[in-house]
Amino acid sequence: xxxxxxxxxxxxxxxxxxxxxxxxxxxxxxxxxxxxxxxxxxxxxxxxxxxxxxxxxxxxxxxxxxxxxxxxxxxxxxxxxxxxxxxxxxxxxxxxxxxxxxxxxxxxxxxxxxxxxxxxxxxxxxxxxxxxxxxxxxxxxxxxxxxxxxxxxxxxxxxxxxxxxxxxxxxxxxxxxxxxxxxxxxxxxxxxxxxxxxxxxxxxxxxxxxxxxxxxxxxxxxxxxxxxxxxxxxxxxxxxxxxxxxxxxxxxxxxxxxxxxxxxxxxxxxxxxxxxxxxxxxxxxxxxxxxxxxx
Amino acid sequence: xxxxxxxxxxxxxxxxxxxxxxxxxxxxxxxxxxxxxxxxxxxxxxxxxxxxxxxxxxxxxxxxxxxxxxxxxxxxxxxxxxxxxxxxxxxxxxxxxxxxxxxxxxxxxxxxxxxxxxxxxxxxxxxxxxxxxxxxxxxxxxxxxxxxxxxxxxxxxxxxxxxxxxxxxxxxxxxxxxxxxxxxxxxxxxxxxxxxxxxxxxxxxxxxxx
Lengths: 295, 210
What we know:
The structure holds two protein chains of two kinds. By secondary structure, chain A is an alpha/beta fold. Chain A is 36% helix and 21% strand. Chain B contains nine helices and no strands. The longest helix of chain B has 35 residues, at 11-45. Chain B starts with a helix and ends with a helix.
């Protein structure tokens, strides 16, 4: 869940201002069917995921996303950067239909998420979140082999795949029989990445997967993940609030604030961006403080 | 006459009443689990129903057991046999802890784990059977444990309506004003309750996730 946490008073005023300036999402009924909205027919074949004028609001009225338009190209690693409550995680969950847009459409592989069978859609999309997402009562092997098992792969093939994946993410094969609680944080996160890759999905969603790790382990995993992503060429949407991570991993960075997309940049463009929030991120980056004050 | 002498002289009857007791408790617990666990699961899917359902189960708990046995006497089919009344009453008493612990156990499963499962494409049924129930199992067993211990005690009262069980000795002893006969029913019942508590406690501990 997203919790819109305060930050500074100035930040709150800023976001409040944004909400008041642009009506639209607020006035629309949550129940209105997204499919009735006019949409251009086809997505460009190079686009794996596309947000088309997506609004997301809660039942009791708070709007978490305002008219998001964003395309994720096939094979790229798009970072969603922003602070807590900016709508990053909400955007991610709209892709694998853990949430459905209040209006607009999220196109996945050329089809609106709401037109996909949610189970089939999710099995095509690897999903990794902070370490808590591993099943504590499953061995590492069963955790990694979960999606293949759901898809009914034969046991033999699952075992081979698990061994292959353990090697891919740099883990010893002996680890397969252990439970997640018997692993270090870094090992757990590698397992999380391996699990997301298990059924070889064309799209990966990563929600601050390295957030809970110590700085050294995080840097190590980031480097390895980058190499892995370049090798496998998975379309990846990566959520983080850490600019360093965004600059290192992203082929593009989408900057979100208070449920709105401010702009998308290449890492290089980001460093020289005029946009005030982007500049604030960069300034904080150079002085060693992140703009949300920690984390 | 000491308690040991009484046991030695009435070995067959002690054994038979103990088995009757176990049968009443075992059957009623099996029925209570078969009803209570699905109801508890259903409540996690229909949370508006939680308050009324648990409220009704709570009210049933407050009915004095002797009165409940009496109320059920005129019931059709059930009322024809004392054991049926006893089992039904025990089921009614056991429902609250079983339903409540199933509900609380499943609601207490880490939402992030459930969401990860959904995000990877598990169906509702797969989530329930592979994630929610296994992770809630120790809490559910804890409810069954409480219900079983209560049932062992309550089942002694079923002898008042002629349902048999170790309560036979207790009521006979009361009528005879003979403490040894009362203890002949009370001590085995207490031992049964302790054994059930211990055994289910072990199971609960064994099933507790990380």
